[in-house]
Amino acid sequence: MFKMLVLQQLYNISDEELEYQVNYRLSFMRFLGLGLAEPVPDATTVWLFRQHLKQQGLIQEVFEQLI
């Protein structure tokens, strides 16, 4: 899930667009380690994951460590 947030930040795309792109771009699937037949988390799941990180005060810290 965190890798999905990384893609979202890199490409500056919405949750819905992220879901679409992961479903249709092999490069995104490969980055996430997903196979063609594996389910992709939907936009709501991505949003909930981000909100959970924000509530825990972790999202900024994790992205700062990444950079």
Task: Label this structure with key terms.
mainly alpha; 0% strand; single chain; 67 residues; globular
Q: Gap between N and C termini, in Å?
A: 18 Å
Helix content: over 70%
Shape: globular
Sheet having the most strands: none
Low-confidence runs: none
Structure description:
- The protein has 67 residues and is mainly α.
- It has one domain.
- It has five helices and no strands.
- The longest helix is centred in the C-terminal third of the chain and has 13 residues.
- It is globular.
- The relative contact order is 0.18.
Compact overview of the structure:
The protein has helices spanning 2-11, 15-24, 26-32, 43-55, 59-66. The chain has one domain (2-66). By secondary structure, the chain is mainly α.
Topology (SSEs and partners):
Layout: H1 2-11, H2 15-24, H3 26-32, H4 43-55, H5 59-66
Helix pairs in contact: 2-3, 2-4
